[in-house]
Design brief:
Protein name: Putative SnoaL-like aldol condensation-catalyzing enzyme
Keywords: Signal
Domain SnoaL-like: 40-138
Pfam families: SnoaL_2
Number of helices: 4
Distance between the termini: 53 Å
Organism: Brevundimonas lenta
Structural class: alpha+beta
Strand order of the largest sheet: 1-5-4-3-2
Radius of gyration: 19 Å
Order of helices and strands: HHHEHEEEE
CATH class: Alpha Beta
Largest sheet: 5 strands, mixed
């Protein structure tokens, strides 16, 4: 080692800075795997941990486009308000990521949302587009609870 003092200073500086947040440019190289990790971190913070505002601030581009038809205007702010409203209005709702996959700049999440203990579950298929290590678009397909399934294979 040429200069152990410089190495020690670099290590101390890195430790003092703390760990980089998932999804920040230092951790993201734009690869499908990095995009998947970013989206899973976003989904986990925003829905599983029920903190949509911090999730959007950390992982979503300011000019984000929401394609969900029941979010007025399709903006980032409207999406935050919509998710915050669900969490406020259905305080027992729980989200669970079942699987995820990435292809190029698209990340797919298959999730389950249970509004209340014992309630019917919703099947969620979310698609996110990532650009420059930020989520820039979102689409979803939501399947509500069903009591009359004729297919023996579950959604999950």
């Amino acid at each position: 080692m040429r200069n152990p003092g410089l190495f020690l200073i670099a290590c101390i500086t890195a430790l003092a800075a703390g760990p980089a947040l998932a999804g920040e440019a230092a951790d993201c190289d734009g690869s499908p795997a990095a995009n998947r990790e970013l989206v899973v971190a976003f989904y986990t913070l925003g829905l599983v941990e029920r903190q949509p505002q911090p999730a959007f601030e950390r992982y979503v581009a300011p000019d984000f486009v929401e394609h969900k038809p029941d979010i007025p205007g399709g903006t980032r702010e409207a999406a935050v308000d919509f998710l915050g409203g669900i969490i406020r209005d259905v305080p027992t709702a729980r989200w669970e990521i079942l699987r995820s996959a990435a292809q190029d700049d698209l990340v797919f999440v298959h999730a389950r949302m249970t509004p209340a203990p014992g309630a019917g579950v919703y099947a969620l298929a979310d698609i996110f587009r990532v650009e420059d290590c930020r989520i820039v678009e979102h689409w979803d397909v939501v399947g509500g609870p069903t009591d009359m399934a004729v297919n023996p294979h579950p959604r999950f």
